[in-house]
Amino acid sequence: MPYIAPEVLLGQKYSPAADIYSFGVIMAEMTTGIRPFYERSFDTKLAIEISCGKRPEFALRTPNCYIELAKSCMHFDSQKRPTAETIYNKLSEWHNFVKESDEPDDLDEFLSITLRKHPDIVYASMFINTHDIAQYYKEISDQFNIKDEIASASNNFEISIDAINQ
């Protein structure tokens, strides 16, 4: 569930921008080596929090340019997320900079990070009631005068979440 874009949790159709959101979550995960919200159950409460702006944390000493790119990928407004081409160009720019740098690599240490999992979380398909999420989000939006078209979504559907390193 942490990889699912807020608009999808609220019942909108899946889009390429939702993939960009997921990529931003993966970027955050790569800095910590810990799955986002691993200490929490993947339930309606978490879905509502994600829909209201909760995002994964970044590790200390993560470069600001990296955090900015990841946060732009996780922007609430799917129209404000970068395109795949923009991300590719930025990563290529960084890759070329690192390739030309004389700094030693700490790749071995970085790659040795072990992912932690919450014991009660199922990394598989699960039913998500987007009607409840959308309704709660609408109540919060109305309360704080947040105007957003996606607050009225009310579809139920099943989302497949593939397990990683089960």
From TrEMBL:
Source domain of life is Eukaryota
Q: Where is the Protein kinase domain?
A: 1-98
**Membrane found in the keyword field:** no
Q: Give an example GO molecular function.
A: ATP binding
Keywords for this protein: Kinase, Transferase
Record carries keyword Nucleotidyltransferase: no
Q: Which PROSITE patterns does the UniProt entry name for this protein?
A: PROTEIN_KINASE_DOM
Name it: Kinase-like domain-containing protein
Gene source species: Gigaspora rosea
